[in-house]
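Dear colleagues,

As part of the handover before I leave the project, I'm documenting each prediction I ran so the next person doesn't have to rerun anything. This entry is a single chain, and its sequence is reproduced below.
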Amino acid sequence: MLTIKNNDVLPLRGDLNGKILVLNEKLLGKDYKNEKFQLWIATNARGNTIFADCLWDNESTQWDRHNFIGIYAFDNVKMVRQLMTVKNNS
């Protein structure tokens, strides 16, 4: 089961490429306020611009650095996707 807690989120520092980032929940619409829509993997991060893919549905989009609250402490993408699937099926 996937649950994002404050201590699971690290500060946005260093090279973000390939990191799992946590999107600010306030940016999500009513139907998307769920942690599965908060986890994105940075595919191209330069300066304040971050291109990322949602780990849940593989949507690709461009974000600004300040849209993310931090780096998800668990950096194993495969494990995180498995946890998301378990939560969705429960």
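The two ends are 8 Å apart (CA to CA). Residues 77-89 form the longest helix (13 residues).

All the best with the project,
I.
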